[in-house]
Amino acid sequence: MVSLSDPAVQSYILYSAILALKVLVMAFLTSRIRFAKKVFANEEDAKPSKRKVILDDPDVERVRRAHLNDLESIPAFWILGALYLTTSPEAAWAALLFRVYTVSRIIHTIVYAVKPLPQPARFIAFLIPMFIKWYMGIAIVSNYISAL
């Protein structure tokens, strides 16, 4: 039974909230770079500063790709993490998975959009959370396979 008093559930809630805030920060990061470089995607934004619409600035697009990567990855974590909690995992192990996932996603953003580093830094920061999602997904399926 999943309970809010369960340390694993509390850990999931904490790290899910951190990840949600991270996704929100990405929109501000994109805006900050757009304004710093005076690169606008919409006519109404560009017009007051007498700028042209630019849709392919490499710095803005790098941050947008990092944001898109979050939007592709983090919701799957939320679903799999919540379902994983129904398998009654050991609290310390679940907390470790959630923590490593969150830290890896933050590192991914740093090495991709904030201070780009050469590969394999971004690949490793992407791969670790992917393995964690696969691990949780397989644990869920293994736990509930008898329902077929």
Automatic annotation (TrEMBL):
Its main location: endoplasmic reticulum. Keywords: Acetylation, Endoplasmic reticulum, Membrane, Mitochondrion, Mitochondrion outer membrane, Transferase, Transmembrane, Transmembrane helix. It catalyses: RX + glutathione = an S-substituted glutathione + a halide anion + H(+). It is found in: Endoplasmic reticulum membrane; Mitochondrion outer membrane. One of its GO terms (cellular component) is mitochondrial outer membrane. It is a multi-pass membrane protein. The chain crosses the membrane at residues 12-30, 68-85, 123-145. It is an enzyme of class 2 (transferase). One of its GO terms (molecular function) is glutathione transferase activity. Its EC number is 2.5.1.18. PANTHER family: MICROSOMAL GLUTATHIONE S-TRANSFERASE 1. Conjugation of reduced glutathione to a wide number of exogenous and endogenous hydrophobic electrophiles. Belongs to the MAPEG family. Homotrimer; The trimer binds only one molecule of glutathione. This is Microsomal glutathione S-transferase 1. It comes from Papilio machaon. The lineage of its organism: Eukaryota, Metazoa, Ecdysozoa, Arthropoda, Hexapoda.
